Amino acid sequence: LTRSQGSRVFWDSSAYLEEAQQAFSLDQFFYPKPIFVSVVFRVIGTDAGHIVAFQQWFSVASWLCFTTVLVTSLETTRARIVALVAGAIITLDPFRLGYGSAILSESINDSLLALLGAAMVWLCSRDRSRLRTLGLVGTTLLATCWMLTRDTNAVITLVAIPVGLVLWRPAPRLHVRELVALGVAAIVAVFV
């Protein structure tokens, strides 16, 4: 589906590529664009072909991960089949796959959102074990990366946390780990 797509460079692409070509410094946390996409581009290289290949594979892998977690968390066969079909449609959506050819933050943002969604579904469908603590740490790290991908994600997080707390109404003594994770996410969101 993506073989015929070449890389598309936009006027905004230069901000990410320029930042990725510079030596890392703490000043980059205060650049106009959040830092995570530039760090990814620095790791995989600033060649447009490498970026496109990474974004396309990362998109498919992350949405497959989301679909797998969703299917395994459901109890009835009918719900699992519906989740599997919906996951396949989302994973292979031409518009979503088209994001991969743009040298921008959208594709990485979308893929991180799928992984974050998978982590949230996993946390909501599992019991309170030691593995859950590791899951909370991983989810908090994913949320941090997601917020450092686009500044609007930080705004979404700052709105979602109080709304979620009002709807959830957790008992503080029973959910200390979850509340700490939300506190860390709020601190990162305010920083971004």
Give a brief outline of the structure:
The chain is mainly α. 71% of the residues lie in helices and 0% in strands.
Order of helices and strands: HHHHHHHHH
Average pLDDT, rounded to a whole number, is 85
Give helix % range. over 70%
How many beta-strand runs? 0
Major β-sheet profile:
none
Instruction: Please tell me how large the radius of gyration is.
Output: 18 Å
Number of helices: 9
Strand percentage lies at under 5%
Catalogue the unreliable spans. Answer: none
Folded structure, characterized:
With 192 residues, the chain is an all-alpha fold. Helices cover 71% and strands 0% of the residues. The chain has 9 helices and no strands. It is globular. The mean pLDDT is 85.
List the helices and strands and how they pair.
Elements: H1 13-21, H2 36-44, H3 48-73, H4 77-91, H5 94-99, H6 106-124, H7 130-147, H8 151-168, H9 176-191
Helix pairs in contact: 1-2, 3-4, 3-6, 6-7, 7-9, 8-9
Core attributes:
192 residues; mainly alpha
